[in-house]
Amino acid sequence: MRRVTLFINGTSRNGKVVAVYGSLADLLSVASAKLGIKAASIFNSKGGLIDDLALIRDDDVLYVSEGDTFVAPLRDPEAPQFNAHTDWLTLNVGGRCFTTTRSTLVKEPESMLAHMFGDKDVWGNRQDDCGAYLIDRSPDYFEPILNYLRHGQLIVNDGINLRGVLEEARFFGIERLAEQLEAVIRNSQPADDHSPISRKEFVRFLLATPTKSELRCQGLNFSGTDLSRLDLRYINFKMTNLSRCNLTHANLCGTNLERADLSNANLDGANLQGVKMLCTNAEGASLKGCNFEDPAGLKANLEGANLKGVDMEGSQMTGINLRVATLKNAKLKNCNLRGATLAGTDLETCSESSVMFQTCSESSVMFQNCDLSGCDLQEANLRGSNVKGAIFEEMLTPLHMSQSVR
């Protein structure tokens, strides 16, 4: 809603402040009632005829006539030297000009701007060749300050650093705005490194991040957080604390989990196509029914991962890289490890009932006390492997086990 001040044509006293709504005819009707005349024409302060409400701005001063031409108002000798609503001025802030009213600049009475422009030329403000008042500050950070003074709302365009606006608010002494900015900055920061990020906070970050932008969560703390069923594709979780997290049925396709802590986390049913888990600590985690196989051929990399006691029952692990990983006491029942790389893997006391190892590379793998009954080890190379106590009942194909430990 806009408001204007109405005067009778040729005068500058006994004005009436009215709201602008409806049509020009409505405004003329209101002017007639307020000023006690038969309003026929409306002029701006420079004598221009107003024939469209769209030409009227908030806080404009208008002159109403009964049909006669515009008559400039005579200055009242008893009136102050300037009118708060009509005294327009221009500020040159860091080379960029802003036009506003003196009443806008003095809305915060204790601010520097109020002291600078509350009384004409009290501060001896310097002006440029065009008469604009010179202020040596950043125009990008000053614009939100001026808009706040205009309508009382904090609105900052994208790409503007809130801390810069905060410094301007402090410089000009606009304390209420400074408090608002401090609260916004504080709420926009991620949780303290020592406290886990909640699901609500993380979802807010996800929604605020464009789909084509990389979301970097490296080193953050999500310990115990429920991240189940979320789309976490291609996020950088390198060295992140995800211990005891609920990641069931989450989409972790292409996600970077290098050196992350996934101990005792639950990833049942998660999509792990092309995941990077180099040297990840997933001890005691549950990965039942996970899918590591990428139809596009991108192989999941778990090289050097700590998978002690991991339950991977029923997982699709075709082509997975488990080189020098530790699978001690892991459960691999009904897993498909076709084409997997297991060189140097520790599978001591691992349970591998009905595992398929077709065309695996397993040099120096430890199968001590493993149950490999029913496994398909077609073309598997177990040279140098420790198979002490292993059970090979009902093997589907011959094995090449020269130099194996007996």
Description:
The structure is a single chain. Mean pLDDT is 81; it is low at 79-86, 368-385, 389-397 and 400-406. The chain has helices spanning 24-35, 102-105, 112-117, 139-151, 162-171, 175-188, 199-208; strands spanning 2-8, 16-20, 41-43, 60-65, 88-93, 96-101, 133-135. The protein is elongated, with a radius of gyration of 37 Å. It contains seven helices and seven strands, in the order ββαββββααβαααα. It is α/β, with parallel strands linked by helices.
Shape: elongated
DSSP strand (E) fraction? 5-15%
Major sheet: arrangement of strands = 2-1-4-3
Overall radius of gyration: 37 Å
The stretches of 5 or more residues where confidence is low (pLDDT under 50) are: 79-86, 368-385, 389-397, 400-406
Oligomer: single chain
Q: Supply the number of helical segments.
A: 7
Structural class: alpha/beta
How many strand units?
A: 7
Largest sheet: 4 strands, mixed
Order of helices and strands: EEHEEEEHHEHHHH
Overall pLDDT: 81
Helical amount: 10-25%
Q: N- to C-terminal separation?
A: 91 Å
Layout of helices and strands, plus pairs?
Layout: E1 2-8, E2 16-20, H1 24-35, E3 41-43, E4 60-65, E5 88-93, E6 96-101, H2 102-105, H3 112-117, E7 133-135, H4 139-151, H5 162-171, H6 175-188, H7 199-208
Parallel strand pairs: 1-4, 5-7
Antiparallel strand pairs: 1-2, 3-4, 5-6
Short characterization:
The chain has 406 residues and is α/β, with parallel strands linked by helices. It contains seven helices and seven strands; from the N terminus they run ββαββββααβαααα.
